Please model this.
Amino acid sequence: MAPDVQAGHLERRSLRDQVLALVRQALVSGEIRPGDIYSAAALATRLGVSSSPVREAMLTLVSEGLLEPVRNRGYRVIPLSEHDLDEVYTMRLLLEVPGTLRAAANAKPEDIARLGIIADEIERTARDGDVAGFLDADRRFHLDLLELCGNRRLVSTVAAMRDQTRLYGLEALAEQGTLDNSAHEHHEILDAITRDDTEGLERLMRQHLEHTRSDWARPDEG
Model:
C-alpha cells in the first residue's frame, strides 16, 4: 500500500508543478492579466486537468505575492506599476549579474553543452514565434546557469524576481520576427563563459536584462 500512495503523491505533485509552470508563463506574458478573476475550476477545464492541482498552484502563487484570493470567486493578479518594474529590474541587476559571473567560474564543459541545448531551444521557439516555449526555455537557461554558483537562496530569489516581470511586449516582437536577436544572446553568453571573458559576460548580461525593462516590460493595467 505504501508504494502506491507515494507514487500517487509524486504524480499529483508533478501535475501541480506543470500547472504552476503554465500559470507562471501566462502571468509573465500577460495572458493572465490583473483585474480579471480566474477560478481554479475554469482554469482546470481549460487545461484539461482536475481542479485540485490548479488550486494548489494558485495558492503557491498567492504565497509568493503574485495572486490574491477573491472570496467565493477565485484569484486575481496583483498589479505591478512602472515603479514596481523598476524595482524588479534593479534587483535582478544586483543579483543576477554577479551571480552569473560566479556561476561562470564554476561551469564545466558538460554544463556548457547542456546549456547549449537549451539555448538552441530558445532560438527555435523565438524563430517559431512560440512565446510560451521561449519563456520556459529562457527561464530554464538562466536558472540552470545560476545554480552553478551554488547558492540556492540566490537562485530562488532571482526566480521570484523573474516571475514578477511583465513581458507584454513579447507577443509583438514574436509577430515581427525580431525576438531572434535576444534569443541568440544566450549562445553569446555561453561563448563568453567558454572564453573566460568576464568583462564581456557582464556586459552581455546587463544588455540581456535591459530587454526585460526597456523593450518588453509593461506595467499592469486594471
